[in-house]
Input
Amino acid sequence: MATTVRDLARLERAEFADMLDRLTPQQWGMPSLCAGWTVRDVVAHTIAYLTQSRTSLLANMTRSRWDVNRLNAAALRSYAETAPAQLVGLMRRHADPSGAGALYGGRVALIECLIHQQDIRRPLGMPRMIPEERLRVSLSYARISPVIGGSRRTRGVRLVATDICWSTGRGPEVHGSAEALLLAMTGRAPAVADELDGDGIALLR
Output
């Protein structure tokens, strides 16, 4: 049984790898929720980010002139020749949060894998029931992380989960499942627009 955030992150990554093992070659090439990225691109991005040491990440960000798009493009190029089976193997070997993924007690690794797994599952029609404990940790972290920007995207609204006892913020309310709220907080509001309701929807950024 998971007892720490690192445990939750480890389980999330293992389940991510299990899901990828079931994909067909055609599914690896299909679009994800990340604009312009295929399923394979999302997987390569996740691995590239979470296997970097903090020093390497800082160096790569400097080389990319602190431009996230350049940083991501460089990471994808570095895995351009890596076969899907090898990508899955890397994900399994690096299941334990380390480097950048270990930041904030493993919360970076947890939310990175949880969100990107949904970026793949939703377009492929592969829904799942995300464990409540992982959702709670991810929701709380998304709200305060300056990189994720959940606070900026939901400023002036109150988020209320309809499937777990969780809410945050002040202002007109936005109701939805914990998963839908998390995706909205991480910049995917258009993808879950039909799953949200409330007077605060128009204020989501």
Q: What stands out?
A: The chain has ten helices and three strands. The chain has a mean pLDDT of 92. Residues 134-203 form a domain with the Nonspecific Lipid-transfer Protein; Chain A fold (CATH 3.30.1050).
